[in-house]
Design goal:
By secondary structure, the chain is mainly β. It has one domain. It has two helices and ten strands, in the order αβββββαβββββ.
Length: 152
Amino acid sequence: MLKYYLGLLISLLFFNQTLAKNINILENINLTFKCELEKKIIKNSKYNYQVFLAKDLDKKYLNKFEIKSQQPETLNINGLSSFLSKSIKLSVKVVNKDIVLFKAIDNNSSYSESGIIDRKTGELVHEITKNIKSENSEKDITFYSCNKKENV
């Protein structure tokens, strides 16, 4: 199942440059999740797509990961990273009954974050790419298992 999400995420990143419209919000949602880290894949000058399990890492939880969407174009992501929480304009926004897919790129197009969460299974993949324009780009791909929390 994780191969499917990773493939979908990579496809999104590859085809993102050619898509004319990257916004498809079909549902209004207000969801909060508590997520547990499963593993992280790191690619940089030190590691070449090396896998680290949750037990090997310091940060193991996302206590409050929030997704709010409103048709036709509003999507807010909070609690995953400060970059996504502050991003007013996500470049990719897809929300339907099964998935939420999102991507944000900084003004210099040198840093991006994207993610996909399966609303049914709670599987979340979060990718951070640094130095996009460089031959030595860096990636952190983090996998979480999430459970819905009741919104209060």
